[in-house]
TrEMBL record:
Protein name: Phytanoyl-CoA dioxygenase
Domain of life: Bacteria
Record flagged with keyword Transit peptide: no
Gene3D superfamilies: q2cbj1_9rhob like domain
Pfam (any one): PhyH
Single GO MF annotation: iron ion binding
This protein's record includes keyword Oxidoreductase: yes
InterPro entries according to UniProt: Phytyl_CoA_dOase-like
Organism: Dyadobacter luteus
Length: 272
């Protein structure tokens, strides 16, 4: 029996079944839906039951169509929920990272959440799906940097769970047309080399940031809600040598998002 670390080093990834408490995953999923529900109410006038999956997700699609800007803002806001960030710092996660070799883990990028559906994309663009890529290109952190990916709903091929090429973390950094959406590895990859991952709520995937992976194809009418956590290892020699580069750019808007807002009166009301 190989150890978790040996398996990780060999394949570039490991799926851990029942690693998270279902309640812990649900609290992130619930908080995200509540945040969306508040804006759905404002934009569509509908009070949606977040537990009525189809009705709620149809309301998400309506919100997306009616106020794209607010949808984007809300989509970013759910990435800042307490429950999501709490999980990213959970000792269980820290220990797992150490177990696969990140002796001194540090956050590589803000915890992220995705809600993938073709109904949440503009003009048939592929914005809701990532082509084959290696996460290291976006993070550029330690050579042993790792990513944790898990869905917040049961997910297999139909709803487009992640697809990975086992062992591809040892292929080296691949040429790529872009590091984010709408672009990916330019060398020819064979579809048959990808393995379709499958998950029940609570299962997680941890993979090397050099592992080649891509979004599956969500052919259902539902949203594939997922979380991504990224970490570097502060003790990795080339990361130290390169001065701990942080390739993620996080910057404020240069203009007021809401022109002429706020008035002094609005502020006085807050602090009255
Ligand atoms: O969730 C997905 O479909 C893509 C996620 C992914 O590839 C990533 O975050 O690097």
């Amino acid at each position: 029996m190989s150890t978790l670390r040996e398996q990780f080093n060999e394949d570039g990834y490991v799926i851990l079944r029942n690693f998270l408490e279902k309640d812990q995953v649900n609290s992130i999923y619930t908080e995200a839906r509540k945040i969306f529900a508040a804006q759905i109410k404002r934009v569509t006038g509908k009070s949606v039951d977040i537990d009525d999956k189809d009705a709620f997700e149809n309301a998400m699609f309506e919100f997306f169509e009616k106020d794209f800007e607010a949808f984007v803002g809300t989509g970013k806001t759910v990435q800042h929920s307490f429950s999501l960030h709490r999980l990213g710092l959970d000792p269980k996660i820290e220990n797992l990272l150490k177990e696969v070799g990140l002796a001194n883990p540090v956050i590589g990028a803000r915890a992220a959440m995705q809600f993938n559906s073709r109904f949440l994309s503009k003009d048939g663009s592929k914005h809701w799906k990532l082509d084959a890529h290696q996460d290291w290109r976006t993070g550029q952190g330690s050579l042993d940097s790792a990513v944790i990916w898990f869905p917040m709903v049961d997910a297999g091929a139909e709803i487009g769970a992640l697809q990975v090429i086992p062992g591809s973390h040892k292929f080296g950094l691949q040429a790529s047309s872009a590091s984010g959406y709408q672009g990916g590895i330019t060398s020819s990859l064979k579809e048959e080399d990808f393995i379709q991952t499958e998950f029940k709520v609570g299962d997680i995937l941890i993979f090397s940031s050099f592992l080649i992976h891509q979004s599956g194809n969500n052919v259902t009418n539902n949203i594939r809600w997922s979380v991504q956590l990224r970490y570097n290892n502060l003790d990795e020699p080339t990361f130290i040598e390169r001065g701990y580069p942080m390739a993620y750019i996080y910057k404020p808007e240069t203009e007021l998002v809401t022109p002429d807002f706020p008035t002094k009166e609005q502020l006085l009301e807050v602090y009255s």
